Amino acid sequence: MRTEQTTEILLCLSPVEVANLKEGINFFRNKSTGKDYILYKSKSRLRACKNVCKHQGGLFIKDIEDLAGRSVRCTKHNWKLDVSTMKYINPPESFCQDELVVEMDENNGLLLLELNPPNPWDSEPRSPEELDFGEVQITYLTHACMDLKLGDKRMVFDPWLIGPAFARGWWLLHEPPSDWLERLCQADLIYISHLHSDHLSYPTLKKLAGRRPDIPIYVGNTERPVFWNLNQSGVQLTNINVVPFGIWQQVDKNLRFMILMDGVHPEMDTCIIVEYKGHKILNTVDCTRPNGGRLPTKVALMMSDFAGGASGFPMTFSGGKFTEEWKAQFIKTERKKLLNYKAQLVKNLQPRIYCPFAGYFVESHPSDKYIKETNTKNDPNELNNLIKKNSDVITWTPRPGATLDLGRMLKDPTDSKGIIEPPEGTKIYKDSWDFEPYLEILNAAVGDEIFLHSSWIKEYFTWAGFKDYNLVVRMIETDEDFNPFPGGYDYLVDFLDLSFPKERPQREHPYEEIRSRVDVIRHVVKNGLLWDELYIGFQTRLQRDPDIYHHLFWNHFQIKLPLTPPNWRSFLTCCEQNGPGISQECKTT
Questions:
Q1: Number of C-alpha atoms within 13 angstroms, CB side, residue 162?
Q2: Residues 81/88, Cβ–Cβ less than 8 Å
């Protein structure tokens, strides 16, 4: 009987133990089980494994001959393991050590997790069969959306084809093919990787639901349900299927797929393996560490994100070190690190073909000109050139409407019909966006009756449920240019006791100032949405003292808010019973 992939906690480290981790190799023992583990730290990156040699189960100790501090030596037969790569160096080219999943908890402690089974795709293995030309075709639509023809079935990934993502911060870079809606309607199934709106696009799904409300949609069994906000969205979809991780889902005799969790964000992120006649297509989407870093090698086609820039950090920060020069250098360094990481991942996994996608967005609204100019993205061609320099992997930089014929490419990568580009004259890049209908939805929240009553602040943050944490946040509603909005709210929240003081408390406390565009923050508050709409959507400007990332705070508001929105109807009824009560104490002058 097939069972869902599970995770087992092998070791827990306290926040103090995490803070005291030294660069290089760290040895730990779980005192309750007697089992030993190795953690390797390189700046902010952590890797971990069991302290057990693959040869005959010996214990590793520090290798005193390794001056770089990256290898350990087995006490039984002197086998050596480079913990920075998890590869055995003595004997060379022999084994790779099985890695454990490293996960930070809400208090900045650390968990070592083991996936079971670690390689679930190996269950019920199938040998690849020869593919006819045209039997398997992959057509790029836009961003992370692919249309897959797999025999007589069609499957679509992550359809974002109209409208914005993250409130109003992201817009499509590429012009989707004009027949995109017909393509969606013809699909036999749709996979949606996670709840972010550049993958779960309610404007796109609303168009689809108007034609095919019963289209089968598949999502992983994440802690935060992908469609947690379906009822609020008003989109009428009737065939959403939540499937367990690590189990093959059989579509027909030739086609099956398996959804896997992310090792860093298992509560919300997933990736997928699609297999047709034994040929695997691996789509890691946005996963930071898909399946804890364990992935199938030598798949037929691999696709992943590549661009970077999917965060408000550091562009939306100011004060202290956050000068324009510092931000530019940080962005340049981070993009290069991401490029090198993706190239190394592809080199390690050795897919036959690699395609960079899920990074084709632009901050096109005029009010976000600063973000557009500073938030540079990686060039897919630069990544592909780096991959080709270090491996024999075939690369594909997709353009909207381009189709890859997998059978042809596997047989002869030089086949001129292996990749069919869109017809000459096809519009590739968008040069206009229909802003108004989506901005109207946001603007509708500004004058909502809720915000006539200053007590909405206490109501909202009580609903949010975050407290008992020493952090004071000043929230300021602003105009388009992040200047205080006339008549808007400017208030303090003390999360230690969830109070709303007029002045900062006398005790020592970390402090953040969050300026948010009034239309977006009120839309988020009114609908109980996650703060990714604000932060990833570049709709805030932030300052903090000291310069510390408060993971517990941001993780709560970005992923752990209640699944049901605030009960504003009850709130307004209570306000009516108590009189207008339009307090000015939290308002700006």
A1: 16
A2: yes
